[in-house]
From TrEMBL:
GO terms for biological process: lipopolysaccharide transport; response to antibiotic. Keywords: Antibiotic resistance, Cell inner membrane, Cell membrane, Membrane, Transmembrane, Transmembrane helix, Transport. It comes from Pseudarthrobacter oxydans. InterPro entries: ABC2_TM (IPR013525), ABC2_TM_bact-type (IPR047817), ABC_2_transport (IPR000412). PANTHER family: INNER MEMBRANE TRANSPORT PERMEASE, TRANSPORT PERMEASE PROTEIN. Belongs to the ABC-2 integral membrane protein family. This is Transport permease protein. It is a multi-pass membrane protein. It is found in: Cell inner membrane; Cell membrane. GO terms for molecular function: ABC-type transporter activity. Residues 44-281 form the ABC transmembrane type-2 domain. One of its GO terms (cellular component) is ATP-binding cassette (ABC) transporter complex. Pfam families: ABC2_membrane (PF01061).
Length: 289
């Protein structure tokens, strides 16, 4: 009709992650659906959020802490170990599920149009729902052994959680989109998940790596998950140590002033590249699926 200024919008040409914020209600529905589907027919339900990391912790603690006697040189090794496991599990679960999210929701994507980014983002939120109970267990264990964090350390916990969520979202967007065209992406992500626990100072202390790598230690620090785990240890493990347990290499030099900003920059770059890749490939999702 004359006088109308409405313009046709090309299907699939949205605003990316900004559309996810605009469709928060849909995001909430997808998160609820993911949780219900995952635990349908399960007796324990969300209690698996406690059981899986607990079993993983016990295996590592017995094998490394007791058999290899790593707890002897690392005070409160149980806290050190569990703090790293909780954070890495959040990342690996988010990345794995985000990579499969588009393919797993193929039926919905074929039928209607909605921001495709909703699917990877919703899986990160589901992983966050599993992360929070584990975090509460970690906080409880820290309080038992005398945890006295500073305001800065508490703020660092929130910052690191957000950084890891953004990192998992960026990689999830990238691999989730590529996975529609090449299912090999799932195998690549499986290898990343397998390596990330050992590529970050979860089971060992960072100083062991520095002694081996020497001047090339900075390469190790470029991994955002390495920095994230180190900051988590600084926030949870270090405040549980007594004065006579403190050592000079509790955390790497320049962790907060240099490596944390670098990790955040790398994370934002990954998010940008992931969103760029996703938007370019999302146009033909329905046809490919």
């Amino acid at each position: 009709m004359a006088g109308q200024t409405d313009q046709l919008v090309k299907p699939g040409s949205g605003r990316g992650l900004l559309d996810v914020y605009g469709d928060r209600f849909l995001l909430k529905l997808l998160v609820r659906k993911e949780i219900k589907v995952r635990y349908r027919g399960s007796v324990l339900g969300l209690l698996w959020s406690y059981v899986k990391p607990l079993v993983q912790f016990l295996i590592y603690f017995v094998a490394l802490g007791i058999f290899l006697n790593l707890q002897r040189g690392t005070p409160n090794y149980a806290i050190y170990l569990f703090a790293g496991i909780v954070l890495v599990n959040f990342f690996t679960e988010s990345l794995s599920n985000a990579t499969r999210s588009i393919v797993d929701n193929r039926d919905l994507i074929r039928k209607i149009y909605l921001p495709r980014e909703l699917f990877p983002v919703s899986t990160v939120w589901v992983s966050a729902a599993h992360f929070l109970p584990q975090l509460l267990v970690l906080i409880g264990a820290c309080l038992v052994v005398g945890w006295t964090p500073s305001i800065l350390q508490l703020g660092a916990v929130v910052l690191i959680f957000g950084m890891v969520a953004v990192l998992a979202t960026g990689l999830g967007l990238m691999f989730g989109a590529v996975n529609v065209y090449f299912r090999d992406s799932e195998n690549i992500v499986d290898m990343i998940v397998m390596v990330v626990t050992w590529a970050s100072p979860v089971l060992y202390v960072w100083s062991m790596v520095e002694r081996v790598m020497g001047p090339w230690f900075w390469v190790y620090q470029l991994n955002p998950m390495t920095v994230a785990v180190e900051v988590f240890h600084w926030a949870f493990w270090e405040p549980t140590l007594k004065a006579d347990q403190m050592v000079a290499d509790t955390m790497p030099p320049d962790l907060l002033t240099v490596w944390l900003p670098v990790a955040m920059l790398v994370t934002l770059t990954v998010l940008f590249l992931g969103q760029l890749t996703f938007r370019r490939l999302a146009i033909h999702f329905a046809q490919e699926l």
